[in-house]
UniProtKB/TrEMBL annotation:
It comes from Floridaenema aerugineum BLCC-F46. It catalyses: GMP + diphosphate = guanine + 5-phospho-alpha-D-ribose 1-diphosphate; IMP + diphosphate = hypoxanthine + 5-phospho-alpha-D-ribose 1-diphosphate. Its cofactor is Mg(2+). Its main location: cytoplasm. Belongs to the purine/pyrimidine phosphoribosyltransferase family. The keyword Magnesium applies. This is Hypoxanthine phosphoribosyltransferase. It is an enzyme of class 2 (transferase). Its EC number is 2.4.2.8.
Amino acid sequence: MNQNLKLLISESEIADIVKQLAQQIDKDYVNRSPVVVGMLKGSFIFLADLIRQIQTPIKNIELFRLSSYSNATVSSGEVKMLMGLSDGILSKQDVILVEDIVDTGLSTSMALQLLKAQNPASLKLCALLDKPARRRVSVKIDYLGMTIGDRFIVGYGTDVKEQYRQLPAIYVLEE
Ligand SMILES: O=P(O)(O)OC[C@H]1O[C@H](OP(=O)(O)OP(=O)(O)O)[C@H](O)[C@@H]1O
Ligand SMILES: Nc1nc2[nH]cnc2c(=O)[nH]1
């Protein structure tokens, strides 16, 4: 493991944030049963923790992965599902997209567009972390865990070259 990791958000702080987010979601979804959609790979640990704190009955849990974009200017029309969502599975559903981090906003806005195309009854975004310093596309985060500075983070599902996803806390990767 790389030694240049500086703790940013501890396991217990993450747990508190996740509980608060679940409480907000419970408050908003009384008498509704949302479909929770996790965007892979980064959100898988956050998603697993979040759904276990949500008391509201969840109708369905879906996972998907977008094709990566090499050029940030690529149009949303060219984004492909690498691992999908079946056609129409979100139609008329109350959908919550779960993201680990919104940075430039490109991934999330593309994901939201793809989900919206299935005509959900409602669509909300829950993101553990927001890094607004490098935003290129505006993204409305309905349920936000924490805003962070312009630092590259790893752990708790997030990676650098597929490393560090297993770490239970969130660290800043220092060069
Ligand atoms: O706001 P953006 O600048 O688009 O960055 C945020 C995205 O980047 C990461 O995913 P990544 O593409 O690294 O894939 P991964 O989730 O499989 O690690 C993260 O999980 C977000 O989905
Ligand atoms: N691991 C990781 N992935 C990202 N994708 C966009 N921003 C980040 C970040 O800070 N860390």
